[in-house]
C-alpha cells in the first residue's frame, strides 16, 4: 500500500524546471546517459523503514545544454509503470532542479545530486510531499560506445568468360 501511495506522488517527485544547466566547471563526463539502478522512498509519515522499490529500470540523459530526457520504469503490484519526461534542468552547487510540462501543466522538482567521477555513479535526491519525504535515485553512467570500424568496400572483380 505504501508503495502505491508513493507511486501516486512519483510524477510530482520526478518533475523538472525550465532553464539552462548552470554549474561551476562540471566534469564533461557528468553529461551522459545514466541507467537507473535503484529507487528508495523515504516516507516520514510512516514508522516503516525506507522502501527500496524493486523493478527499477530505464535511463536518464543529461545534456550539456541543460536539456534532459527521462525514461523510468517501475514494476509495482506485478505490473510496470512508465514515467517519461523531457525538459530542462539547472545545477547550482549540489542542487538540481528539473522543469517539464506534462498533461497537468508545467511543474518543477527540486533536490540534490552527488556525482562520483571515479565510478561514474550519480545519486539524485528529490524532495517529496509532504515536506521531509524524498525519493533517492541511484544511477550509473552508460559505458561509452566504442566506435566500430566500417569495412572498406571492395571493388567487384570482373566476371570471367568461359
Automatic annotation (TrEMBL):
Signal peptide per UniProt: 1-21
Keywords: Signal
Keyword Signal annotated: yes
Protein's name in the database: DUF3471 domain-containing protein
Organism: Hymenobacter ruricola
Amino acid at each position: 500500500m505504501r508503495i502505491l501511495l508513493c507511486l501516486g506522488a512519483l510524477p510530482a517527485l520526478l518533475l523538472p524546471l525550465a532553464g539552462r544547466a548552470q554549474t561551476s566547471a562540471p566534469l564533461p563526463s557528468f553529461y551522459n546517459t545514466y541507467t537507473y539502478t535503484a529507487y528508495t522512498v523515504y516516507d516520514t509519515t510512516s514508522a516503516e523503514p525506507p522502501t527500496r522499490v524493486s523493478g527499477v529500470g530505464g535511463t536518464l540523459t543529461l545534456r550539456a545544454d541543460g536539456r534532459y530526457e527521462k525514461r523510468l520504469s517501475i514494476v509495482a503490484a506485478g505490473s510496470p509503470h512508465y514515467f517519461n519526461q523531457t525538459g530542462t534542468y539547472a545545477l547550482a552547487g549540489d542542487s538540481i532542479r528539473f522543469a517539464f510540462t506534462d498533461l497537468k501543466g508545467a511543474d518543477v522538482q527540486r533536490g540534490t545530486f552527488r556525482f562520483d567521477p571515479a565510478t561514474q555513479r550519480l545519486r539524485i535526491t528529490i524532495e517529496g510531499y509532504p515536506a521531509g519525504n524524498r525519493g533517492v535515485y541511484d544511477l550509473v553512467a552508460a559505458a561509452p560506445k566504442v566506435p566500430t570500424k566500417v569495412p572498406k568496400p571492395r571493388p567487384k572483380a570482373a566476371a570471367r568468360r568461359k
